[in-house]
Amino acid sequence: MPRPRIHDQSNILDAVERVIARDGVLTLGAVAKEAGVSKATVLYEHTSKRDLLAALVARTIKADNAFNASCEAQFAGELDAPLLGRIEAAKRMQWVSGGNAAVLGLISALMQDEALRGEFRANQEKLRAGLIEAAADARTTRLAWLALEGFKFQQHMDLVAWSEAERAEILDDITTLARTGTLIGENSSD
Q1: Are the CB atoms for 17 and 56 separated by under 8 Å?
Q2: For the residues of 91-127, what is the DSSP string, one character each?
Q3: What are phi and psi of 60, to 5 degrees?
Q4: pLDDT tens per residue across span 128-148
Q5: Which of 23, 77, 91, 155 has its CB surrounded by the most CB atoms within 10 Å?
Q6: Which of 38-42, 94-98, 154-158 has the lowest mean pLDDT?
Q7: Where are the alpha helices (DSSP H) in the chain?
Q8: In this structure, what is the dihedral angle of CA atoms 153, 159, 164, 169, given to the nearest 10 degrees?
Q9: Nearest C-alpha neighbor of 69 from the set 55, 89, 54, 52
């Protein structure tokens, strides 16, 4: 019996992201060309476009959760550790001009498939529950999380050209909100 071929799935999923970011639409032929493999190779592990998108969603969620967990570790034992970890992750994020291909791919996948939105929704609900459970104040945590996610969305979609200084200031403000429940502090001119 012949041994099954192992293909570089990261390369194929990276190609999916690039194709979606570049073309705004996903075709198997474009993915194969971008990955430098045949269409049959793409279909060897992923039997359809939907299957490719599902793999992309799963990979993106897993990578995001792992990165945020690693950033959260430095806040272990503190109230709001999950939220502070997510803010730290945003501070460490390298923002790219033209939008984040992984996020653009994720959004495209989610727009095309309710079941995939369900998987993402379940992950977001689990995240929300963890943030609230660890919160010093649930309302403040919820507001800071929404501010953070809105900021990240703008950055990932390349909707606003924030300078590095503005990015740092915004993330510092979200941190202040998360820790104190207000943006008005000793050094504020507000």
Answers
A1: yes
A2: HH----TT--HHHHHHHHHHHH-HHHHHHHHHHHHHH
A3: -65, -45
A4: 999 999 999 999 999 999 999
A5: 155
A6: 94-98
A7: 9-23, 28-35, 39-45, 49-72, 81-92, 101-112, 114-133, 138-156, 164-180
A8: -60
A9: 89
Across the range 79-89, mean pLDDT stands at 96
Q: Which residues fall within 8 angstroms of residue 61, CB to CB, at 6 or more apart?
A: 119, 120, 123
* CA 128 – CA 121 distance, rounded (Å): 10
Q: Are 61 and 119 in contact (CB under 8 A)?
A: yes
Alpha carbon of residue 22 to chain centroid = 18
Query: What domains are there in the chain, each with its CATH number?
Result: 9-180 (1.10.357.10)
Nearest to 82 by CA among 122, 136, 156: 136
